[in-house]
Design brief:
The chain is α/β, with parallel strands linked by helices. The chain has three domains: 235 residues, 3-Layer(aba) Sandwich (Aspartate Aminotransferase, domain 2), CATH 3.40.640; 226 residues, Aspartate Aminotransferase, domain 2, CATH 3.40.640; 138 residues, Aspartate Aminotransferase, domain 1. The chain contains 22 helices and 18 strands. A seven-stranded mixed beta sheet has the order 7-13-12-11-10-8-9, sandwiched between helices. A six-stranded mixed beta sheet has the order 1-6-5-4-2-3, with helices on both faces. β5 and β6 form a beta hairpin. The radius of gyration is 27 Å and the shape is globular.
């Protein structure tokens, strides 16, 4: 019976077979390659290193910023071509991006898989955790280029995309059209953005009349495709928006997206515990900061900072019409802060960045007093962004004098009282210090505090950040929340889950890490007394400033300043390479702080200050210690370095 069925079926197949089965000598490489890509990707997911899901920062010793993503994919494709998905091979791939919020192995692979499916170049595919920021990225580029834009969609727009805010606050201009299908889209003199909401990562109709496809996926984020050679110039600028104003699709969500592609299925919606986790996180943040206003939690520290900046611009435009807005920022602070502030100023006519010298020979309080007096004479709106302690010099200003400078009443040229500043405090290095609570040092001035959650709050397990306000700035939090929502930059469900687990132990981890750091600093001072160390004094530590990071200015030699600088830079790398070679299980050349274990080494000028002006960069070593590490081994290796000098 079975034999007859087989014979009858085979007869039918021969009668209906495609002519190509007889005629061609080679067959469909698109189908062949697609199946190979999917099968290989499935194997990769089964064997991938655990760090691809777990880490927020990666190794700088195998990272070339100029080749971000392309270097990783070049080596990854070599593995694909040899069908090598062994974990040992995957672990040797070069670092795709230094910070995971910019991109990471799984985001690169997701973008590569989508590119392979549609015969596109991987660099034209960019994934986001946000559903709306890719729209803002194109609008920003076209605003600066004075180019027309139309946004076309089928069904419904993402509900957080507030087109009125985009026009009135961000200054973006565009046409908005709803169509029945992609075929209805006609040529346009400018850029055409097409937004589609989907429940799986599937086929894309590459209509030549569409410049940018944005496929939005609920709970995962979005994927942007830059279509055609004419839009190649947009890619790096869209990538930079992802770098500064949001984050890449998270590793967990990229994994879900890849599984959807491989299985050709809709996303699996897992039961969410977001409500309980969010309640726990908000309560922990309020306790840690000693504040009573409802905290705001974003997908990263820079996502939160962007919401703060745009929320304050919004407030100024509505309440101080016609007045210039001045963001006062230290020129050598964390590059993301510096760069983002200047990017906001570039897009809005009456917004400007003013330098605030804070480190070295400059006193933060004196600089603030001088700058605020000047801004008062201009009758402008002052917003100050500053880190305490400063990065990388780890300096804390005289807080009583800081309070006095911020509280000082200044007059405009007409004799009116000048607009008082809002002090926006980045306290990532000391998130446990009470600044804003009732009776605390900054409770009497308008102040907002924020922290990067990729540091101590999560122990390096996710990128989420948060901000709080004191009672004097409680009224500003609504605008900040509004812009966080517009940018779809709230923390993800998994980020809330991680923070809910990690925040309750944060203060104890800070204490333990500080203890290790103080001991290591004391040892370095004893074994290499000619080195200059920037770290908090014991008096400041007694006041609660217990960071676990310090900067190390190594002794140098040479006949000229150029020779001395070159010698010191070489010495920096010699020290770092020795530490990571001798202690590979703990010491890493990595941009990190507040991790659960190990010791992290970096040179701010080539990492955290990447976009800072060259003259303001710090070519010194920055070291951060964790609560869990072999301190004695680190001392022994450092002594070996000293003995080699």
């Amino acid at each position: 019976m079975k034999e007859n069925n087989v014979l009858n079926y085979s007869k039918d197949v021969l009668e209906h077979m495609p002519a190509d089965w007889l005629r061609l000598t080679t067959h469909r490489p698109d189908i062949y390659k697609k199946n190979n890509v999917l099968n290989y990707s499935k194997d990769v997911l089964e064997h991938m290193p655990a760090d691809w899901l777990r880490l927020t920062t990666h190794r700088l010793d195998i990272y070339d910023e100029a080749l971000a993503k392309s270097d990783f994919l070049k080596e990854f494709e070599s593995l694909f071509n040899t069908n090598n998905s062994a974990i040992s091979a995957l672990q040797k791939l070069p670092t795709a991006y230094d910070y995971i919020r910019l991109g990471h192995p799984l985001s690169c692979i997701l973008e590569w898989v989508i590119a392979q499916a549609h015969q596109l170049k991987p660099e034209t595919i960019i994934s986001f955790s946000s559903q709306t920021i890719p729209v803002l990225a194109v609008l920003r580029k076209n605003l600066l280029a004075t180019k027309n834009t139309q946004i076309i969609y089928t069904g419904e727009l993402p509900e957080m995309l507030d087109v009125n805010l985009l026009r009135s606050i961000y200054g973006y201009q565009f046409e908005l059209k709803k169509v029945e299908n992609v075929a209805a889209i006609s040529p346009f003199n400018g850029s055409t953005i097409f937004i589609a909401q989907q429940d799986k990562i599937g086929t894309i109709d590459l209509n030549p009349n569409i410049d940018f496809f944005i496929n939005a996926y609920a709970h995962l984020g979005s994927v942007l495709i830059a279509n055609g050679e004419q839009n190649k110039s947009y890619i790096s600028e869209i990538q930079h928006v992802r770098r500064r104003e949001t984050i890449a699709m998270t590793p967990a969500n990229c994994l879900a997206g890849l599984k959807s592609v491989i299985e050709q299925s809709s996303f699996h919606n897992q039961e969410s515990t977001i409500k309980a986790n969010k309640t726990s996180v908000l309560a922990s943040i309020s306790t840690i900061t000693g504040t009573t206003t409802t905290p705001i939690v974003g997908s990263s520290g820079l996502s939160v900072q962007y919401a703060i900046m745009m929320g304050l611009v919004h407030h100024a435009l509505e309440n101080h019409k016609g007045k210039a807005v001045k963001f006062i920022v230290p020129p050598n602070c964390y590059g993301g802060t510096n760069d983002q502030a200047r990017r906001v100023a570039a897009c809005i006519d009456n917004v400007e960045v003013v330098d605030l010298p804070v480190d070295g020979d400059n006193d933060m309080v004196q600089s603030i007093d001088t700058v605020l007096t000047k801004i008062a004479r201009e009758d402008a709106v002052p917003y100050i962004i500053a880190e305490i302690p400063t990065n990388p010099r780890v300096e804390v200003p005289d807080l009583a004098k800081l309070k006095a400078a911020l509280n000082k009443v200044r007059k405009t040229p007409t004799g009116e009282i000048a607009i008082d500043p809002v002090f926006i405090l980045d306290q990532t290095f000391c998130p446990n210090v009470y600044f804003l609570g009732e009776g605390e040092i900054l409770s009497t001035v308008r102040a907002i505090s924020y922290a990067s959650g990729s540091k101590f709050p999560s122990g390096g397990l996710c990128t989420a950040g948060y901000c709080v306000a004191n009672k004097k700035t409680e009224g500003l939090m609504g605008n900040i929340a509004l812009h966080l929502k517009l940018c779809d930059n709230e923390a993800t469900d998994l980020q809330y889950e991680i923070l809910a687990t990690q925040l309750p132990t944060m203060n104890q981890r800070i204490t333990d890490a500080y203890t290790n750091t103080r001991e290591f600093v004391n040892y370095i001072q004893k074994s290499l007394p000619t080195a200059k160390i920037n770290f908090v004094s014991t008096a400041l530590a007694a006041d609660g400033f217990t960071p676990s990071v310090f900067s190390l200015d190594l002794p140098t030699k040479g006949n000229t300043s150029e020779e001395k600088e070159a010698y010191k830079r070489a010495l920096n790398l010699k020290l770092i390479n020795l530490m990571i070679t001798e202690i590979p299980s703990e010491s890493k050349f990595c941009v990190s702080y507040g991790q659960l274990q190990g010791c992290y080494w970096t040179i701010p000028a080539t990492s955290t200050q990447g976009t800072t002006k060259e003259g303001d960069k710090d070519y010194i070593v920055r070291v951060s210690l964790s609560p869990n590490m072999d301190l004695e081994l680190h001392k022994n290796v450092f002594l070996k370095f000293v003995e080699s000098l």
